[in-house]
Amino acid sequence: MKLDFSSVWQYWPFLYHGALTTLKITAITAVFGFLLGVLLSLIKISKCRPLVWFGNFYTSIFRGTPLLVQLCIVHFGLPQLTGMTLTTMQSGVLTFSLNSAAYISEIFRGGINAIDRGQYEAAMSLGVGYRDMMKDIILPQAVKHILPSLVNEAISLLKESSILSYIGAVELLRAADQITVLTFRFFEPYLVIAVIYYVLVMLLSMVASWIERWVNRSDRVL
After folding, report:
1. Which of 6, 26, 209, 222 lies deepest, with the highest CB count within 10 Å?
2. Residue 141 near residue 110, CB atoms below 8 Å
3. What pTM does this model have?
4. Distance between CA atoms of 26 and 171, rounded to whole angstroms?
5. Per residue of the chain (222 residues), what is the pLDDT tens digit?
6. Is 91 exposed, middle or buried (0-12, 13-18, 19+ CB in 10 A)?
C-alpha cells in the first residue's frame, strides 16, 4: 500500500486546532504546576510536622498512581460527588497541574537543599526575614540549578497531554483519530502527529537552552 499524505493535509485544520489545544494545556498546567510545586516544596522543608506529612503524602499519592487514573477520577468521579461537571479542558488542567506539582516539588526541594547553608546563615545574620530570604536569595538560585529538570517536566506534560483524548479532549491525538475515521487511513495521521510532537519538543528544548545560556551569561556579567 502506498502512503498518501494528501488525505491528512485535507484535514489540516483538525491538526492545527489539536496542536493549539495541546500547547494551551501544556502552558497552563506548566504555570499552575510550577506555582503549586514551589508552594509544596516550601511546605516540605517547613518545621511544621503536620504540613511536612501532608506534603509527603500528597507527593506519594500523585507519583504513585497512574496519571490516566487520576484524570478519570477528576473527570468522571468528581461530578458524581460534587454534582459539578467539568469540561475536558478543566479536567485536564486540574489533573495535570496537581500531578506536575508533586514532581516539581521534589525537584525544587532538591534545588533548595543544594544551596550552601552558609547563605542561609549569612541572610539571617543580616536580619533578612525567612520569606524575603526564600524569595530573593534561595529560590532564584534554586531555579538556575533545576532549570534542566523543569524543562524535562514541561516536555513530559507536552507528551502526556495525549491521554486527554481518552476523555474526549480534541488535542493532537484525538485530531488524528478523527482523521482516521474520515479517511480510513491510520499510518499517515499518526506519523504526522508524531512529527508534530517531535518538533514541539525540539522547539521547547531550544528555548530552554537559550534561557539557560542567558542565565549563565548574566551570572558571569554580575
Report:
1. 26
2. no
3. 0.88
4. 11
5. 688 888 888 999 999 999 999 999 999 999 999 999 999 999 998 889 999 999 999 999 999 999 999 999 999 999 999 988 999 999 999 999 999 999 999 999 988 888 887 887 788 888 888 788 887 888 888 888 888 889 899 999 999 999 999 999 989 999 999 999 999 999 999 999 999 999 999 999 898 888 878 777 766 555
6. buried
- Hey, CA dihedral for 106, 50, 57, 167, is it positive or negative? negative
| Grid coordinates belonging to 79 | 461530578
Alpha helix ranges (H) inside the chain: 6-9, 12-44, 49-64, 67-72, 78-82, 88-113, 117-125, 130-133, 139-160, 172-183, 187-221
Tell me the residue length of the chain: 222
Q: Cα 53 to chain center, whole Å?
A: 24
- Of 136, 162, 186, nearest to 5 by C-alpha is 186
C-alpha 150/C-alpha 108 separation (Å) is 9
- Write down the domain spans for the chain: 6-221
Contacts of 205 (CB under 8 A, 6+ apart): 151, 155
